[in-house]
Structures are given as structure tokens and as C-alpha cells.
Amino acid sequence: NPKIVGKVDMSMFTHHSDKLFEYLDKVEGLDETRLAQIEWALLPALKHGHKPKILYNELAKNPEFFAEIITWIYRKRGAKKEKLTKEQEARARLGYELLDSWNVIPGKTNGVVDEEKLWEWVEKARELLEKSGRLVVGDQHIGKILTHSPTDDDGAWPIVAVRNVLERVESDDVEQGFRLAVYNGRGVSSRAVGEGGGQERALAAKYEEYAKKVKFRWPHTAYTLLEIAATWRREAERHDNDALEDEIA
Q1: Rounded to an integer, what is the distance from CA 26 to the centroid of its chain?
Q2: Residue closest to 165 by CA, chosen among 112, 104, 99, 114
Q3: How many whole angstroms separate alpha carbon 147 and alpha carbon 158?
Q4: pTM given for the model
Q5: Helix/strand/coil (H, E, C) string of 179-234?
Q6: Cβ contacts of residue 114 below 8 Å, gap of 6+?
Q7: What are the tens digits of pLDDT across the range 78-87?
Q8: Secondary structure of residue 113 in the 3-state scheme
Q9: How far apart are the first and last CA of the chain?
Q10: Which of 19, 115, 148, 197 is positioned for an S-S bond with 161, CB 3.0–4.6 A?
């Protein structure tokens, strides 16, 4: 069966790709440009194994690279849909997979996010996105990467550097991307029959607590966090209703 053979081949290819990068990670002095090219070529096989660290880091330090990938994936706002070549389709697909899995915040070094470097990256990226007619969708991706913020020492989230960027940028699209990334980042949940929305209420309470910690100095951030909490409250109510229907049935 060709389909089965294809799946086996891809599985083995992924396995050997991971082994290759495990080896390369231990070798000192390798050319990062060459490694980035290898990561890009093997990106489809890396989704469930090795993460393309070089490409992630390049995105985080190079807003031009980020803005260019956005142009590969999305049409200019208001532009008519044009038929893409196979090469353009492949490039767009790889670009989307790369951005979708990217988890390195710009300005982050050794676990610490430099606020000015982060802001410079955001400012330059948005300037390029606006020129290319892709600011709305680009802002949403910027919001998404900001959700990879660590938690602050006082238990607040996101960290101060990210809060300050959210306040300075004042972009509804960045905030929307942030909210959607948090919601989608939960993944698939499981629950017992008749359990209701307890899990979602716990999540809502967590984000409400975050909002309470930041509301006086970072109102835009607090509003975004409360919107996330409100989404979980609605989800909780929906699951409560489902559980009640199960009991009645």
C-alpha cells in the first residue's frame, strides 16, 4: 500500500532527522547560516521532534525575517487572490509551520527579556508590516509570540517587559492575537461525564488574578487578561449546560 509506505518513510525520516540534529547540537563551531538552511529544508519532519532553534532565534533577533515570512503566507490587505506556484505554496506552508511553532520572545537572553530590545523588534516589525500591507495579521502573530512570556517573580503574568510593550503598542490586533494564542494554547481537554465547567472556572480565576496584579499600571494588559478570563467563564457556562442536559437525559 503506497500510503502506508509513505507514512512509514516519513516516520523514519523524522526519526533520523532528530538524530542528526542531536548530533549537530553537540558539535561546536558549526556555521549557523548553514544549520538554518538545513532546518528550513527539513522543517516538515521536525514538527514533532527537534525544534528549529536556529530559525527560532533568527526570527527573534531579525524583524526583517519575521516580516518577510508574513509576506510569504498572507496576501497584502485588499489584494486580489492570485494563483501561487508550487514553490510559493511550499514556502508559504513552511513559513506558517515555522511561525506556528515559534516560541522564542524577541529580546530574550538566558531567560531574561530585555524590554528595549523587545520594543525595538516590535517597532521595526510593525513598520515593515505596515509597508507591506500586512499589519493586521502581523500584529496578531506578534501578540501570539508575546504569550510565551515567563511569569514574573511576584507571580504576575506576563512579565513587565511584555506588559509595557502591550501598553505602548495599543493595538487591538496584537491583543486579539494574544488572547487567541492563550485560548488555543490550552489544547484538547478531557473531563468526566457530567463534570461541568470547573476546569474553565479555574482558568478564568487564574487570569482574573493576573489582571488584578497589573490593573493599576498596565490597563491594556489587564483588559486583555480579563477578556481571556471572560472567555473561560463562557466556556464554563457552556460545559455546565452540557452537564445539566446529560443529567436530564
Answers
A1: 27
A2: 114
A3: 7
A4: 0.83
A5: HHHHHHHCCCCCCCCCCCCHHHHHHHHHHHHHHHHHCCCCHHHHHHHHHHHHHHHH
A6: 107, 108, 161
A7: 778 888 888 8
A8: strand
A9: 45
A10: 115
